[in-house]
Specification:
This protein is an alpha/beta fold. It has helices at residues 41-59, 75-94, 104-112, 119-129, 139-167; strands at 2-7, 12-21, 24-34, 63-67, 99-102. The protein has five helices and five strands.
Length: 168
């Protein structure tokens, strides 16, 4: 299964692409889609759309795993990130790639085994699971890879649940 993990944002979109076969990970690619602060917001969304379209067309994933938004303070940022996130979901949908959403708690639980793990623990475990020499930078990229790992660890139970639902 080829998975694109996404840590959504409008300045930096973390992207991590992994393949998960026979309980083993292969890191295929990772990086970030970036937009400049002085750029008009609609143009930033267009950049995200165009760049993510290229990534989807190049890698042809089986799934996109994306972090659910969780904001408590800055509502303007939340709305802007939600718009960028919507662009990512749109691109995946236009390419018929299913999307799966995970909370930060679910990602921590799936990667580290502890839902209250700190960021450095998640990053270190991501590095180990993917056999990387260093934790990818910026943090958004490491987070995207962790989200992809979360989906790989969660997808089999999602598939079993769907089979159970069909059987009922």
């Amino acid at each position: 299964m080829k998975i694109i993990g996404i840590d959504p944002g409008y300045a930096i979109v973390g992207v991590g692409i992994v393949e998960y076969r026979n309980s083993r990970f292969t890191t295929l690619d990772y990086g970030a889609i970036t937009t400049d602060a002085g750029t008009e917001f609609a143009a930033r969304l267009r950049i995200i759309y165009e760049d993510f379209t290229q990534i989807i067309e190049m890698h042809k994933p089986d799934a996109v795993a994306i972090e659910k938004l969780f904001f408590t303070t800055n509502q303007k940022t939340a709305i802007d990130v939600a718009q960028a996130r919507g662009i990512i979901l749109l691109v995946a949908s236009l390419h018929n790639v299913p999307c799966y959403e995970y909370t930060p708690l679910q990602v921590k639980q799936a990667v580290v085994g502890y839902g209250k793990a700190v960021k450095t623990q998640v990053q270190e475990m991501t590095k180990q699971l993917l056999n990387l020499k260093a934790v990818p930078k910026p943090d958004d990229v490491a987070d995207a890879l962790a989200i992809a790992i979360c989906h790989a660890h969660t997808a089999p139970s999602l598939m079993n649940f769907k089979k159970f639902e069909e059987w009922k």
